[in-house]
Structure formats: structure tokens, C-alpha cells
């Protein structure tokens, strides 16, 4: 589904990603872990189409298409979804207005008719249950005055409504208490299918106790320095990232 | 092109013709006011960029024309009027065509006893005592040349009078339609709205055009909110894109009165809006909100003044500008809190969003406080569409254009939501949608 090949990117002249290689197939859950500043969020943002990042080298193939050629909105329409680390507050735009516009723009892109008001309402009511959101929530302005937990649940709610093929969750666990974490993880798990894939970007192993990854990749200084199964996450939790840094040094010097 | 006579000289020279055409509107007292204003007009100078109050508004394009008074009475069908109405709601409708009251297009519902809604030329004949008491008592012609011009040439305009304790349920929607094949006319609606003690009324001043002609609207509106009166006022300016619109609204607020103004501006090549409210008694409440939507080379200048001359009054002001292309906007909001005006609350805010690199806003919030027990704040911002918010919307599959439209709607939404009249809100939402293709 997604093939990242030797990807180099920079922002404001600073090179952040230095040769990322990653293969994600349908039905898989990948976790990308790493210390702060390793480039995890950059990778998530670049895949979602943030224009501030310059791609210096490499390519990204998504479902046979060159992802980097597509605008952010077209990536979303093709099924890429980014759950933001810091969801943006948009006063004056209601959640329901955002979702209705999004759903219909995506449908238009695929030459489908717009959803009528009733079908749309049924769709969002069904998906709200998934993340245990109250119905009054949809009339509120996007993320405005939301608690940290509400913001993250809103991201998963949007993901549920838009039903992406490739979901990228950027630090979705940060700032969540354990109850909110379970709700969010539960939502993600229910949305998992054989046809879609999930990339979980996280600093901590905690989320991965609830969203079990098939693969774990460790990102360090813009490169994936180690990949493995879910046991790698536990290993990191136990030993911390210093172990890897040393390990890497050994590799480099040795 | 024919020779253009100097702006002032032209109107002084033509005054005799205007005077000769006055019929019943020529009571001695009113005509004395007219003649005095004509003298003010010829004594005062036209504003230039050197005048502090006109620093960013160059009116020289206006001075390139000799505007003529509308010669013929034009008929307009109700169908033509209909497109300017706010849907199917019940309103009292007053129609003015090229400045002249059109009784046949107007429609009054059952107004409370003693309420008058019509033209000022009729009021001069039928209600001289009200005219004498209020006309030209608030908008002084002695220090503003366009008010002087309006006062000198006073002939018609809207007149609304609500007696003590009466509540007018349905809004009074006043539509000034300028439609002309003869080019370059001037209309000078001269409006007077008097809400007596304990009365309540909603009045909409609505300026529209049938085409994109060049013309000049010079309007003056005087509003009296007597003790305990509630006045909800809207001014919607949708003039021709080539029109000049200079307007002054002067509000006299008596004890415990509540005045709300929403000023919406989308038309005109040069627009100048002055709104001045003065608290003449304790306990008044004044809200001045505005939204201007500009494109091409439009210039819009809002000058507001809230004069806290008495204690225990509250004022709230929020103006928002959305500017595209090479449009220019000016906001100058003065709030005076005089020495006696203790326990004043005065809040003022001006936010602008620029959609193009060539758009420009000059904003000047001005707070002058001479009392010591007050709560006041003011602020101004000029920004662009929030990139973070736009990326967020795009990342949900919403295209660039739709994302911009959503964010512009959102920017305007708090001013729109603050309007009490839902049909006006919907009308504005439509204008925004048409403008931004969403």
C-alpha cells in the first residue's frame, strides 16, 4: 500500500529525514517510535502533504501513485488520513460542517453523489459512538475549547467518518489519561480491517499495549535504525532509547 | 469630455433650481436650516489627506464628476424590489427610488397606534412638531461638509416615529434603490428615526443598485433612542461597485436606552461610513458592529465614535474586514470616556483578514479616558488566513477554495451571529457564499 524509498526532507534548510525506507501493506499496523526530535512527526506530516517540508530525495508510492505529486487534499481523497499531534482549533467552523464538507468533497472526487442530510447524520451518529462522543459535540466549533482528550477523540471520530485506507496517528497518545487512551485505542482497533493500514507514531510504548503493532520501527536522527516485531517496543520500554543510541554508534564505528 | 465645474461651486450654483422645485416641503423653519447649511457647505473645505479624519481616504475621484439631481420619477416593479427582501418574513417595507419615496412599492403592516413610517417629506407636512424638535439637531452641518450638503438639499428620506411605550414587532426595512439610465446622479436620503420612551423598533437601512453605474449617495441618518427605548439598527450597503457612498449615522442615546447597530458594507468604489453615538443619560447600552467585504479597488472607511458623556453606560464595538485584490480598508474607532462617566464599560475590537498581498488596512482604535473608575479595552489585528487551519481542512479532503471559504465564513461568523435578526443573518450568509463560491 505504502512504499517509502530513501526519503530525504528538510525544513528551512535543516535536513530532518535522511533516507527513510518503509513498507506498509494493507491489514498491517506499524509503529514508528523514537526519541524527541528524531523526525517522527516530520515523516507523518510529509506523508500528509504539509508543504513547508521540502523533499530533497527519494519517493513515496501509495497504491501505485506517486504520493508526493498529490496535494494534501487529494491525498486525503485517496484515503490518507493524519490524526494530528496538535489538532487545530477553528473557531466559527462546526465539527459537523467540517465533516459534511469533507465527506462530500471526497465523494465528488470519486464521482459519487453528495450524501443527503439524513444519510450523513446517520453516518456521524454511528461513528460518534465509536469514540463515546456526545451528540452536542458536533455543533461545537472544531476543537475550540476542547480538552486534550476530546481533541484526540475528535481526530479518531473524523477518521471513522472519512474511513481512510492509510491512517497515520501522530502521537495520538500524548497527553491522554488511561481511560481516554483506551477509548481512542478501542476506536482505532474497531476501524482496523484487512483493507486498511495504520501507522502509529509514538514516543512511548504505552499506546502499543492497546493497539498491537505488527511491526515496530525505531527512528533516530532521521533514519530508521532498527525494525522488528512488537517485542521491540517492549525492549525499548525496558531499556530506553540510550541503548539504541549506543548500539547505533557501535554499528557506525564498528 | 465636458468641462467639470468645481464640486462646491456646482452645488451652490444649482441650489436655486432645487429650491424652486420644493413644494410643501418648504416650511420656514426647515428652509432656514437648509439655507444655513448651504452657507456651511460653501464655507467648509473639502477634506484632503491632510485632514486627520480623512488621512487614508482620498475623495478626489468623487470630485471628478458633476452629479445631477434625479430628473424623472422612475417606476420599479414589485418583482424588482423582491430580490432585495429577506425571504418570506413579514416586514414593513419602505421603498425609495433614486432618493424619492415610492408609496406604491412600500407596504406597511399593522403598526401600533401613533406609529409613523414613511417619508420625511410627508412628515414635514404632517408632523412639523416632530421635525422641528429633532431634525438636524444631532448631525450638525456646521463641521462636516457632506452633512452640510445633505442638509442644504434635504428633500426626502425615511421617517420613523414610535410613540411612548409602543413596540413595533415587525422590522422596518427601508430600501434605497438607485437605478438610472441617466448617468451620475446624486441622491441624498435624509433619515430621521425617533423611538420615544419605552418603545422598541428594528430598522434596516438598505442601499442597493440595479446596475453598475457611477452615482453618489450622500446619506445622513439621525436616530433618537429616548429613555428606555430599544433600537436595533442595520445598515446594509450593497451599492453599485462604481458608486460613491458617504454616510453618517448620528445616534442620541437617552437614559437606559439600548442601541445596536450592524453595519455591513460590500458595495461602492469609495465608501465612508461615520457612526457616532452619544450617551446623554445614565445606564445606556450601545453596540456597534460591522463587517466589510471588499475586492477589486474598493475603498471602505469606517469612522465610529462612542461618546461616554454619562456614567454607568456600556459600549461594545466589533468591526471585521475581509479584503481581497487591491482593496483598502480604514477603521478609526474613537471611544471617549468623559470625566463624569464613571463605571463605564467600553470594549472595542477590529480584526481584519487580507486575502491578497495588495490589500491594505489602516486601523486606528482610539480610546480617550478621563474618568478613573472604568473598564475599557481595545485591540486591532490584521492577518491572513490561518495556514494551520487551512492545512487541517485540506488534510480532511477539503480543497483549497472550499477551505478558504469555510475559514472566511468562520472569521465573519461572530459578527453575523451577533445580529438578532435571523433573516438578515441568512441574507449575509448568502452574500458570503456567493462571494466565496461555497
Can you walk through the features of this model?
Chain A has 254 residues and is α/β, with parallel strands linked by helices. Chain A has one domain (2-253): Rossmann fold (3-Layer(aba) Sandwich), CATH 3.40.50.300. Helix content of chain A is 37%, strand content 28%. Chain A contains eight helices and twelve strands. A six-stranded mixed beta sheet of chain A has the order 6-9-10-3-11-12, sandwiched between helices. In chain A, strands 2-1-4-5 form a four-stranded antiparallel beta sheet, with helices on one face. In chain A, strand 11 and strand 12 form a beta hairpin. In chain A, helix 5 (148-162) packs parallel to helix 6. The longest helix of chain A has 15 residues, at 95-109. Chain A is globular and about 55 Å long. In chain A, 43% of the residues are buried. With 438 residues, chain B is an alpha/beta fold. Helices cover 22% and strands 36% of the residues of chain B. Chain B has a ten-stranded mixed beta sheet with strand order 2-1-5-8-10-12-14-16-18-20, covered by helices on one side. In chain B, strands 3, 4, 6, 7, 9, 11, 13, 15, 17 and 19 form a ten-stranded mixed beta sheet that branches. The interface between A and B is medium-sized, with 31 and 23 residues.
List the helices and strands and how they pair.
The complex is a heterodimer of chains A (254) and B (438).
Chain A: E1 2-11, E2 14-24, E3 29-33, H1 40-48, E4 54-62, E5 65-66, H2 72-77, E6 80-83, E7 90-94, H3 95-109, H4 117-130, E8 141-142, H5 148-162, E9 166-170, H6 178-191, E10 197-202, E11 215-220, E12 223-228, H7 231-239, H8 242-253
Parallel strand pairs in A: 3-10, 3-11, 6-9, 9-10
Antiparallel strand pairs in A: 1-2, 1-4, 4-5, 7-8, 11-12
Chain B: H1 7-13, H2 15-20, H3 28-43, H4 78-82, E1 92-97, E2 100-101, E3 116-119, H5 120-126, H6 128-134, H7 145-152, E4 158-162, E5 172-178, E6 186-187, E7 190-195, E8 200-209, E9 216-225, E10 230-238, E11 244-253, E12 258-265, E13 270-279, E14 285-294, E15 299-308, E16 314-323, E17 328-337, E18 345-354, E19 360-369, E20 375-383, H8 387-394, H9 400-417, H10 422-436
Parallel strand pairs in B: 1-5, 4-7, 5-8, 6-9, 7-9, 8-10, 9-11, 10-12, 11-13, 12-14, 13-15, 14-16, 15-17, 16-18, 17-19, 18-20
Antiparallel strand pairs in B: 1-2, 3-4
Helix pairs in contact in B: 3-7, 8-9, 9-10
